[in-house]
Amino acid sequence: ELRRSMAAWKRRGGLEKFEHKLITGMTNNGYPAAFAERIFHQIKGFGEYGFPESHSASFALLAYASSWLKCYYPEVFVCALLNSQPMGFYAPGQLIYDACRQGVEILPADIRHSDKDSKLVKTSTGSSGEDRYSVRLGLRQIKGLSSKAMDRIPRLRHKLSSQDKLISIMDLRSHHFSQHDLQALAAANTLKETSGHRHQAVWDAIKLNFEAGDDLLKNSYQREAPPLLRKPGVGEEVLKDYQSMGFSLQSHPLALLRESFQSLGWLHSSQCWQAHDGSYVACGGLVVGRQRPATASGVVFVSLEDEYGILNVIVWPAIAAKYRQALLCSRLLLVKGRLQVQQGVLHLIAGYLADCSHYLSDLPIVSRDFY
Asked: 127 phi and psi, to 5 degrees?
């Protein structure tokens, strides 16, 4: 009981009930009363910081083990985190982009291969004989897809005799998948191998909703000539990926906009590391985090992401108040300010903020590559 009270973070109460018992026991065993009282006050003092000390030791062990795993087995690390979502500060897209920068191959969610959770897939064996693994994204990454559908798809693959068997919209509909789930799968591009591309898959899913009945469904579907829909461009694919999953494996949105940003003099996050401490720079990125800790006296911390990594921005209260709308509402934020580089840590101290989210609407026309 004494140990538990010492570990509890209580500034008032908790240990006082042990005072008489402890001091009486010590004096009965020959210790001076003054000494016994000093011992009690030392124990009481430890109760002031014993809780955070014990927790810091526990979290230090977790941080060390996680760092070791991320360093030597990054594919295992990111796969486990994706399957533990939602769990904290980093969204799946940030975890995936970070893993890609570490050289991890991320395979898209695919109705032919994906299970509900992400999984490791053996892709090759290195010269040293060590197996190499990629991460196959799970169906849980698809927005709007029901848990029931996620569970049924692997079973459906088994019924079709082989995991390489193509699963079409017709197969899903004949097994009573809802229209909502069909459209979610089509929008996430998990059916491109059977439909050809995302536009066709979405068309197929919508078309089935207008069929008269299941008994005539297959004949009607096969009788009508498919419409000549063009394949989506890279910009369209990226936009649709973000809408359906919150990230894209095809390209980062800012990579498609980089040429325009360079003409405006914007740096990317990697270039900021090459600049000198105190340099005045302009940098833009997707807003992936905003924090205003109660202990920070009104300071807002913003995390910007581009195709090269994460940039940490510090927004002082006066700047936050002046540019409140841009700070709170931007998806793509431009920050002008001074770099602070100290002991291997980089921050951008904001002096000006602008909402540049309108650039994202230009993604479909940025790339004319309709391959």
From this structure: -60, -25
Q: How far apart are CA 155 and CA 254, in angstroms?
A: 39
- Are 272 and 346 in contact, with CB atoms under 8 Å apart? yes
DSSP strands (E only) in 160-319: 280-291, 300-306, 309-315
* Pick from 64, 76, 129, 66: nearest CA to 104: 76
How many Cβ atoms sit within 10 Å of the Cβ of residue 252? 21
- CA distance linking residue 2 with residue 130, whole number of Å: 51
The candidate with the shortest Cα–Cα distance to 254, out of 304, 187, 291, is: 304
Please state, in angstroms and rounded to a whole number, the distance separating the CA atoms of residues 271 and 341. 13
DSSP H or E stretch at residue 122: strand 119-125
Q: Crossing angle for the helix pair 214-223 and 198-208, nearest 10 degrees?
A: 140
The Cα 193–Cα 163 span in angstroms is: 13
Q: What is the pTM assigned to this prediction?
A: 0.76
The tens-digit pLDDT sequence of the chain (371 residues) is 777 777 665 555 567 788 889 999 999 999 999 999 999 888 887 777 766 776 788 889 999 999 999 999 999 999 999 999 888 778 899 999 999 999 999 999 998 899 999 999 998 776 677 888 999 999 999 999 999 999 998 888 877 655 445 677 777 877 778 888 988 998 999 888 777 788 888 877 777 665 545 555 555 555 566 677 788 888 889 989 999 999 999 999 999 999 999 999 999 999 999 999 999 999 999 999 899 988 888 999 999 999 999 999 999 999 999 999 999 999 999 999 999 998 889 999 999 999 999 998 878 766 554 33
